[in-house]
Specification:
Length: 249
């Protein structure tokens, strides 16, 4: 993971008129990572005026899970006196998910307090800190599906190292495991199926790219005319999902 100070110094080199290739060779940072930093909608210095550099996630596996939760049901809002609140919405119907979310936040940022805000039908698992915007640089104005969502190079490295944790976070936020049924030759057959539903094309692609890398077969099912649903229904792929993800509880 590259800290914020490193990213700022790298972008300063580009602002001096240097080419992407020359900055990459000098710093040892891939062109893809530098390009992603440069294409951000908001420059890093404006996004993070607080203490630098930012610390890396304490627990990368927990971070991969929390990243999935954030991309599904998370948001970050500024605090009037500085810093930011991270909030992950968890339905009251899944108390186990609330506990897992809380534990993941504590594992990623042990020094930041975590508390629960009860709302109608859900709990906002909330944490205040000065590093949530650099932990989740996908933060920005507006809804996630209305802006581009791209992982930073260091985030992709964590997802590549802990893909099942990332998928579990996505499913636990915007997904489910259900039992479908059909009738064949007059007999009713039931079979399990996983769904991930999200309006963002970018977030769905992050999900399907990771599933493909894990050997999980998936299809896209439209909701009306919109391809919002990622479906996993083949027996072997459902068995993989059961072994590594499982239903919410």
């Amino acid at each position: 993971m590259y800290d914020i100070a490193t990213r700022m110094r790298t972008l300063d080199l580009l602002s001096d008129g240097r080419s992407l290739n020359s900055v990459s060779k000098e710093t040892g940072i891939s062109r893809a990572a530098i390009r992603a930093w440069r294409s951000r909608l908001e420059p890093l210095p404006r996004l993070l005026p607080q203490a630098l550099p930012c610390a890396a996630p304490t627990d990368e596996a927990s971070y991969a899970y929390l990243l999935g939760l954030y991309l599904g049901d998370g948001c970050i809002s500024p605090h009037p006196r500085g810093g930011h609140h991270l909030r992950i919405a968890c339905a009251d119907a899944w108390p186990g998910l609330i506990d897992l979310c809380r534990a993941a936040i504590k594992a990623v940022r042990p020094d930041d307090k975590v508390y629960l805000l009860q709302k109608q039908g859900c709990v906002a698992v909330t944490s205040y800190g000065r590093h949530w915007t650099c932990m989740f640089p996908q933060h920005g104005p507006g809804k996630k599906h209305e802006r581009r969502i791209v992982l930073e190079g260091w985030q992709q490295e964590i997802v590549d190292a802990h893909p099942w944790e990332f998928v579990r976070g996505l499913i636990h936020s915007d997904g489910c495991r259900i039992t479908n049924w059909t009738v064949r030759n007059g007999k009713r057959y039931e079979y399990p199926r996983y769904f991930f539903t999200n309006k963002s094309d970018d977030i769905r692609k992050l999900c399907t790219d990771t599933l493909t890398a894990l050997g999980v077969e998936w299809t896209i099912l439209a909701r009306g005319s919109d391809p919002f649903n990622v479906s996993v229904a083949r027996k072997a792929s459902v068995a993989l999902m059961d072994a590594h993800v499982g239903p919410k509880y």
